[in-house]
What we know:
By secondary structure, the chain is α+β, with helices and mostly antiparallel strands. Helix content is 52%, strand content 17%.
Amino acid sequence: xxxxxxxxxxxxxxxxxxxxxxxxxxxxxxxxxxxxxxxxxxxxxxxxxxxxxxxxxxxxxxxxxxxxxxxxxxxxxxxxxxxxxxxxxxxxxxxxxxxxxxxxxxxxxxxxxxxxxxxxxxxxxxxxxxxxxxxxxxxxxxxxxxxxxxxxxxxxxxxxxxxxxxxxxxxxxxxxxxxxxxxxxxxxxxxxxxxxxxxxxxxxxx
Length: 206
């Protein structure tokens, strides 16, 4: 049986609508983020991140375990735009290469199909060939995301990566401001949903 991988594609929403200077800054920030992500996650990347199509990032993972943290780390590092993160599970049909865009196979096709669905349905997290029970949670995640203000979205991303103190430090605000936002966002309920999401994300399909 062929080894299964996880292809991840992240696409900046409406980046072509940015002013030329803002888009150039985003692309420079993305190049810096890719360098940092490749270093931080080097032990779990089957193929490193690379930038394709201007404002799209791709990588390949050997297992789904790092996926949640990596996706939110990417959002946290590039917060000036909203990102669609699409993931596909399956084998590859080309040899492993240093970066993801150099390869092809079902995992990449699943990720691309998930990206296309996400854009049609205005989702920001989407999956192909994962367990079916993940789909309602991806819809729930996206509905919550769009119901929040940009400040709440940023806070949620940082809380998903660490504790309130770390989020406050990244946002350069008092911890009480984070606590106030978390209460308004019903964070204990969000965290409970996230726990289910992560568990299903790491579940092997039947």
